[in-house]
Design brief:
- By secondary structure, the protein is α+β, with helices and mostly antiparallel strands.
- The protein has 2 domains: about 150 residues, Ribosomal Protein S5, domain 2; about 110 residues, GHMP kinase, C-terminal domain (Alpha-Beta Plaits, 2-Layer Sandwich), CATH 3.30.70.890.
- The protein contains 8 helices and 12 strands.
- The strands form 3 sheets. The chain has a 4-stranded mixed β-sheet, with helices on one face. The chain has a 4-stranded antiparallel β-sheet with strand order 2-3-7-8. It has a 4-stranded antiparallel β-sheet with strand order 10-11-9-12, covered by helices on one side.
- The longest helix has 16 residues.
- The chain is globular.
- The two termini are about 25 Å apart.
Length: about 270
């Protein structure tokens, strides 16, 4: 059985406070996009995990897909499987690729073995794997709060707009990015701003709070945003804590040599 875990972008990202447990409460809009990994599982005599595509650092047996299988196996008598993950979504770029892989693994195991999991049970499994994972269970535009585990569906649709995503070969440390953030509660909740403001007016009203720090440390990332606006984007932003940057366009622009050195994805929203 095969599926295609997709990436997300952040539309706005505010760090509103630091929690007693050391995490931060945020608010953001998560919006799914068509950039996808490929995930396949089949029953097998022994458990196996393999990956191709983008190299995934670290111990393969600690991959979130393996963690998702192990988590469900605690509650269900799952047989051994062979997992093949073909990695396309850039790693550590603010696109949620690892979280998507884990969430889609839960959905895939449920379908393959007919587990009939209630939606809330799947969400509970997902939150044990990571803050962003529950979003990908439903995989619909959502207003995200808490440390990422609370979300409500957002009636926002960007159909007809065109997206260009550019990701330089730069690693932005999430820990370091948070270390330079000064949490601040918003005067107006982000979801209200998004719903009341047309996309063409988001610029100047919808911000990713990490940009100020990350742009100082990595001017190349700031330059991508400036290029996207120069190409005619109605809105451009870094996603997550970086390094990927996207631009939203009213129609498909011409890309020639602007992002030759970067990983680029483009498509309709």
């Amino acid at each position: 059985m095969i599926c295609f875990p997709n990436a997300k972008i952040n539309i706005g990202l505010n760090v509103v406070e630091k929690r007693p447990d050391g995490y931060h409460n945020i608010e953001s809009i998560f919006y799914p996009i068509g950039l996808c990994d490929v995930l396949e599982i089949v029953e097998n005599e022994t458990f196996q995990f393999q990956s191709t595509g983008i190299d995934i650092p670290g111990d393969e047996q600690k991959n979130l897909c393996v963690s998702a299988y192990d988590l469900l196996k605690e509650d269900f008598d799952l047989p051994p499987v062979k997992i093949h993950l073909h990695k396309i979504i850039p790693i550590g770029a603010g696109l949620g690729g690892g979280s998507a892989d884990a969430a889609f693994m839960i959905n895939l195991l449920e379908k393959l073995f007919e587990l009939n999991l209630p939606a809330e049970k799947k969400l509970n499994f997902a939150i044990e794997l990571g803050s962003d994972c529950p979003f990908f269970i439903r995989n619909e535009p959502a207003f995200i709060t808490g440390r990422g585990e609370f979300f409500e569906q957002m009636p926002i649709r960007l159909g007809g707009y065109y997206l260009i995503l550019a990701c330089p070969n730069i690693h932005v440390s999430t820990k370091e990015a948070y270390a330079h953030i000064k949490p601040q509660k918003s005067l107006s909740p982000l979801n209200e701003i998004i719903l009341k403001t047309p996309v063409e007016q988001w610029r100047g009203h919808v911000h990713n709070q990490f940009e100020e720090t990350v742009f100082k440390q990595h001017p190349q990332i700031k330059e991508i945003k400036e290029i996207l606006y120069g190409m005619g984007a109605v809105y451009a932003s870094m996603t997550g804590s970086g390094a990927a940057v996207y631009g939203i366009f009213e129609k498909k622009p011409n890309i020639e040599r602007e992002f030759e050195e970067y990983c680029v994805w483009e498509g309709t929203l």
